[in-house]
Design brief:
Layout: E1 11-14, H1 18-31, E2 42-45, H2 48-58, E3 62-65, E4 68-69, E5 72-73, H3 75-84, E6 90-94, H4 99-107, E7 112-115, H5 121-150, E8 156-158, E9 164-167, H6 169-175, H7 179-182
Parallel strand pairs: 1-2, 1-3, 3-6, 6-7
Antiparallel strand pairs: 4-5, 8-9
């Protein structure tokens, strides 16, 4: 199973500060995710609006997103990018070392949250790789769920103690039990 794209990795950095963008680009190069002389591997957008346009045109493999931009701030930034590009992983890179903000970003659809000045090229490379893997696994999980829900046979998934954790719609049609009624029970 090949997790990372076979083509050169395309990264969109939505960051208004030129110094921070330079560090991001350097960290990406040092992480080994792109050729050291590949100036096109990291695309730069200085605003959310510019990032939305760049993401639409370039179809990046991943988006590195600052939360404090001239035209957007905080969770509105994550929500706007996630809504416009639902299948593209987002790693938030921000100057705010705030647990609640990090949690909110993850709940809003970001795959990771890194604080500027507190990560190096290894940490950024790892966050990018993990985000790419996570988005692929989530996609496969959704596909499996659709398939399990579409079959005509009843399917029951239990834990190691034979307590029901999940049933598909065919099970509920065939037995008359709802998912909520079945959860925690033992088949039989």
């Amino acid at each position: 199973m090949n997790i990372l794209p076979l083509k050169p990795l395309s990264i969109l950095a939505v960051e208004d500060d030129p110094g921070d963008f330079g560090l991001i680009r350097a960290h990406v190069r040092l992480s080994g995710l792109c050729a050291k002389n590949d100036k096109e591997a990291v695309i730069w957008a200085k605003t959310l609006a510019g990032g939305l346009v760049s993401a639409q045109k370039s179809k990046p493999d991943i988006i590195l997103l600052d939360l404090s931009l001239p035209d957007s701030a905080g969770m509105d930034t994550v929500h706007a990018m996630r809504s416009a590009h639902p299948g593209t992983p987002i790693v938030v890179l921000t100057g705010h070392d705030d647990y609640d903000l990090a949690n909110a970003a993850l709940q809003a659809g970001a795959q990771d949250y890194l604080v500027k000045g507190h990560f190096d090229h290894d940490a950024l490379g790892r966050a990018i790789r993990y985000a790419l893997v996570r988005i692929q696994l989530e996609s496969r999980l959704r596909l499996s769920e659709v398939a399990l829900n579409a079959v005509a046979n009843g399917i029951v998934i239990t834990d190691q103690h034979a307590h029901i954790e999940w049933v598909n719609p065919a099970f509920t049609r065939l037995t008359g039990y709802t998912l909520e009624e079945a959860i925690g029970k033992k088949p039989g």
